[in-house]
Amino acid sequence: MVAVATLVGAVVALVSRVFDRSGDSVLWLARRWARLIGRLAGLEMVLDARAILDPSRTYVFMANHLSAVDIWATLAVLPVPVRMIAKKQLAAIPLLGWAMWAGRFIFIDRQNPAAARRSIERAKDRIRNGHSVLLFPEGTRSRQGSLLPFKKGGFHMAIDAGVPIVPVALRGSREAMPPGSLLLRPGRVRVVMGEPVATAGLAERDREALMERVRAEIERMLAG
């Protein structure tokens, strides 16, 4: 059922690109696709918002990464539409990768530093044009459940764009789809959204402190 929902959604997303070059209609479809998958799998995806965001502002959302379920949960419940910064391998998945391209998601090749820098520049252009983005600063899923070291590129991007970072803690997604499993299990996935962390006025020398602050906030929310 998940495969059929993804197939149909991807085809509709590609068709919508003909009429909407901005990709905004794909974001609308992506939210409904994610919610449908949640219902089909018996997942209760809930938002625990510890801040009220200004819908007219642009944000960089940064979340821990435990499972493929994280993608559906964040798309389904975050209060503003987001474009993901995703690893390049997702672009190669037939239909799904093409639909992400139609939605103007950003693909990053972490094995190629020059290409990664170009992807970050594209993301900054999206942000300056009023598009919020979502990324997983660990760069990959944590198989043990604990936070992995953060990559620095997203923090560099947020500082350059001068937009707040919203820390997000995902809880329950690892149990819904354990590492190495292709089966979805019913359960509750909580998306805990913290207070935005301002980046206005920060410089490159502040990047490490900013990274530690965001990481500490995600760890705090994961702990309860």
Strand order of the largest sheet: 1-7-6-2-5-3-4
Beta content: 15-25%
Helix-strand sequence: HHEEHEHEHEHEHEH
Report helical residue fraction.
40-55%
- The CATH superfamily is identified as Glycerol-3-phosphate (1)-acyltransferase
Overall average pLDDT: 89
Q: How many individual domains?
A: 1
Q: Structural class, from helix and strand content? A: alpha/beta
Shape: globular
Q: Could you give a short account of the major beta sheet? A: 7 strands, mixed
Gyration radius (Cα, Å) is 17 Å
CATH class: Alpha Beta
Distance between the termini: 33 Å
Give a count of the beta strands, DSSP E runs of length 2 or more: 7
Explain how this protein is built.
The chain is 44% helix and 16% strand. The relative contact order is 0.18. It has one domain (2-223): Glycerol-3-phosphate (1)-acyltransferase (3-Layer(aba) Sandwich), CATH 3.40.1130. It has a 7-stranded mixed beta sheet, sandwiched between helices. The protein is built from 8 helices and 7 strands. By secondary structure, the chain is of the alpha/beta class.
Question: SSE layout and pairings?
Answer:
Elements: H1 2-19, H2 24-41, E1 43-49, E2 60-63, H3 69-77, E3 83-87, H4 96-102, E4 106-108, H5 113-128, E5 133-135, H6 153-161, E6 165-171, H7 173-176, E7 187-193, H8 207-223
